[in-house]
Amino acid sequence: MAKIAIEVERALARRAAEGSPGGVAARPLAAGEGWTARDMICTSGPQDRPFEERHSEVSIAIVVAGSFQYRAPAGRELMTPGSLLLGNPGDCFECGHDHGAGDRCISFYFHPDYFERLAADAGARGAGPVFRGPRLPPLRALSPVVAHGIAGIAGAADVPWEELGVELVARAVELVEGLPPGGSSPPPGGEGRVARILREIERRPEADLTLGSLAREAGLSPFHFLRLFERLTGVTPHQYVLRTRLREAAARLATEPAKVLDVALDCGFGDLSNFNRAFRAEFGASPRVYRREMGQRPA
Q1: CA 13 to CA 17: how far, in whole Å?
Q2: Do residues 59 and 112 both lie within one domain?
Q3: Residue finishing a domain among 176, 211, 229
Q4: Phi and psi at residue 47, in whole multiples of 5°?
Q5: How confident is the model at residue 177 (pLDDT cuts 50, 70, 90)?
Q6: Which terminal residue of the chain, N or C, has fewer Cβ atoms less than 10 Å from its own Cβ?
Q7: Closest Cα partner for 67 from 147, 165, 148, 135?
Q8: What CA dihedral angle connects 253, 147, 150 and 78, to 10 degrees?
């Protein structure tokens, strides 16, 4: 299990030992004029009743561990690692954990005026910081900025959080224009089946996770599982597993001195050439170049 997910498990264990209700622990990461970034670990679970909150600023949160339901005026979505939670200022929202306890997010908050300037520079249409949907799925275009944020909370030194926030706005503004509004209701029981599979993938991404094995675990035929998974997460099971493995590999390359081959094998890749090809396609650089750019010395 990834280090970032282990931190969630430890928080859940502390909560169980203390017998306390679920909640959110926020650790400041960085702040500047018009923006803040925080590391948020939530220990809520199915036994905790969700309550309504309100976005005071523009919110873009990178989900890095766990899964949960996010309900906002723009729709209802299942949030998964690698996806972006989008929030408009003034909007009420709820986060529910009907199918499992705990999650972790890197949350960026932008003052509306500052966000509007960034969005305009990034080519946003119209005025005002308004997201039409509540989520961006774990798309390839988001992988570099997501991996950079994960490396930051995993221990990478000198993470440029302000630059990361600006890049996050640019990617969100660009991608949200091409996605249909969210909010479709999943079939009865479908969301729980997929959420269970998502947590299984997160626990052991290096395992032999084929469409057939995941479908059997979910109790569905491969055809229906594929359709349901893509409908709820925005990507196919293969894409999701691959990106989970690549995010874990990127975090290790940025924070550990292990050999590239060892990282590749530990993260579920059968050979180095396949890993190098997939990594370059996802992040635009080879594993060695990525490691050097992140300031980590190889073994």
Answers
A1: 6
A2: yes
A3: 176
A4: -80, -10
A5: confident
A6: C
A7: 135
A8: -140
